[in-house]
What we know:
Blueprint: H1 2-18, E1 44-50, E2 53-60, E3 66-74, E4 82-83, E5 87-89, E6 93-100, E7 105-114
Antiparallel strand pairs: 1-2, 2-6, 3-4, 3-5, 3-7
Amino acid sequence: MRLSRSLAPVTAALALTLSLPYDAMPHARVRDAKHSAPALFGAACRTTVRGSHVVVYCHNPYVDTDRVRLHIECARWWDIDTDSAPVDAAPAMTVRLAGRCWKEVRSVWISHQKVR
């Protein structure tokens, strides 16, 4: 008797699930062709600052070429801030960028540009 009472709810749930109309069944989520994922882009850069010298290594693991550029802001008001020439990091390529201030470095950043 106990076995039939414990199987009754399971049997009822199974019968209701199998009797649902097809439209009420859950569907797998499929992305539309219009809403495709954005293409991955951008080299990963590793920055090292030692005193007044800055060295950056940027590795591009993606298919599109990334034009990277080093920007250095110096701490002293009379020290000239610098921007490096743009360097193209082709797919699977690592590039080295370097620059310096006369005295201390305040901040360093890298800009990225997609090459068409």
